[in-house]
Design goal:
This protein is α+β, with helices and mostly antiparallel strands. The protein has two domains: 3-176, no CATH class; 189-211 and 264-292 and 315-401, 2-Layer Sandwich (Nucleotidyltransferase, domain 5), CATH 3.30.420. 43% of the residues lie in helices and 19% in strands. The strands form four sheets. A seven-stranded antiparallel β-sheet has the order 2-6-7-1-5-4-3. It has a five-stranded mixed β-sheet with strand order 10-9-8-11-14. A two-stranded antiparallel ribbon has the order 12-13. A hairpin with a 7-residue loop joins strand 12 (295-296) and strand 13 (304-305). The longest helix has 35 residues, at 240-274. The chain is globular and about 80 Å long.
Length: 402
């Protein structure tokens, strides 16, 4: 299996400054390569520059600017150029598919936060001693940085990434050949129904409350954002007070992100420890949280009819706060490691179909929480009904696969 391990770095003051310089110089390389591609296409007979051509220029760039580019790992700079090449490949793919292209943008230092080392031992060396307080990682141009290794690393380290999140620095190890750790079988099968009022409901009738982390910190976050908005545009990114205000907003968002991830990991672990098969709806959160299209008013040119955008924005905010996609991804990864099976099923009419007689109708769903079948009279909680239908559909999928 392939797994990623993320550990907190504890750099010294000098190492922290060197890490910031490493990010800044890689960001400069990324922007320079992007500018070269733009200029070549616009001014040189629409010529497209590829990764191989830009990678061949690295030796000359490093010798021309040894203080900024020559001090860093050659392979990490190649990874930065490859990152730009992937952005252009995705751009051309969207153009051919007729989607919104999204031309690659220049990166500010605040939005360029990762440097990748493609191989352990090439510009970056990992000390694999488990649970050693002296564990360190050696980074070219930075030195031996202390690592808070809170769990042992298994498998073979393939790539190493250094990432900045706010004022914290992390190291991410991508490992392959990680052995599985199967849990003892339980023989239990469960279906889960994701929601907003409750985070999830199981087919056994258990409810997991939605913690609503953004709502819990809404007042504090709004105050920090309002303070940040008081700075005029001409002084932004120029004063110490503005940088402190922006850092405060980033810290609050980082805290919410960590709380949500911790909740997802613990909830997924509880489900996997108690069940052999976990079924869930196949949700397309990107489409579910899409803003409604505007409705032009045919009687008044230039005006638009109400399209429910305000109400949809509140629902989108609740869905994104719950983080369904992240949770289902964590659930699948943990299930693979534990030898469990996760079965996604079709989400259509799971909360409108009666689990007793199979009758599906919009009228079955009386309210957000109440379900009553108009055919047989079956009454239950709507979320519980959805979870039971998910489990039943998973049984059909497993029987068809067998």
């Amino acid at each position: 299996m392939i797994r990623a391990y993320k550990f907190l770095l504890r750099p010294t003051v000098r190492q922290r400054a060197a890490l910031g310089e490493m990010l800044r110089d890689h960001c400069s390389l990324y922007n320079g390569a992007l500018q070269e591609r733009r200029d070549a296409y616009r001014h040189v007979s629409r010529t497209s520059i590829k990764y191989g051509q830009q990678s061949a220029q690295l030796k000359e760039i490093r010798s021309f600017d040894p203080e900024r580019q020559g001090r860093w790992s050659f392979s990490s700079q190649q990874a930065t150029l490859r990152r730009l090449d992937k952005a252009f490949q995705a751009f051309f793919r969207r153009v051919k598919a007729g989607q919104t292209p999204g031309y690659p943008r220049f990166k500010s230092i605040g939005h360029f936060d990762t440097v990748v080392f493609v191989k352990d031992g090439d510009g970056c060396r990992w000390d694999s001693t488990p649970h050693d307080p002296q564990t360190r990682v050696r980074l070219q141009g930075v030195g031996h940085v202390r690592v808070h290794q809170h769990r042992p690393v298994q498998g073979h380290v393939k790539t190493i990434s250094v990432k900045r999140e706010g004022n914290r620095w992390y190291i991410v190890l991508a490992c392959d050949e990680v052995p599985a750790e199967p849990l003892p079988p339980t023989g239990a099968v469960v279906g889960i129904d994701m929601g907003v009022a409750r985070f999830l409901t199981t087919s056994d009738g258990e409810h997991v409350a939605n913690p609503r982390f953004v709502q819990a910190m809404a007042d504090e976050l709004a105050e920090a954002q309002q303070h940040l908005a008081t700075f005029p545009k001409r002084t932004r990114q120029r004063t110490k007070r503005h940088r402190a205000a922006a850092r405060k907003v980033a810290q609050l968002h980082g805290k919410i992100r960590r709380q949500r991830a911790d909740f997802h990991h613990k909830t997924a672990r509880t489900l996997i420890a108690a069940h052999d098969v976990i079924a869930h709806e196949r949700l397309k959160t990107a489409a579910m949280t899409k803003a409604p299209a505007p409705k032009p008013d045919p009687e008044r040119p230039g005006c638009f009819l109400p399209n429910g955008a305000a109400a949809k924005a509140g629902l989108n905010r609740s869905i994104l706060d719950a983080g369904w996609a992240q949770f289902l991804g964590i659930l699948a990864n943990k299930a693979e490691s534990a030898g469990r099976l996760v079965v996604p099923v079709d989400a259509r009419n799971t909360s409108r179909s009666c689990p007793a007689c199979g009758h599906a109708a919009k009228e079955n769903r009386l309210t957000q929480t109440r379900f009553q079948c108009t055919a047989c009279g079956f009454v239950a909680n709507a979320d519980h009904v959805g979870a039971m239908n998910v489990r039943n559909r998973a049984g059909l999928v497993l029987c068809a696969a067998a």
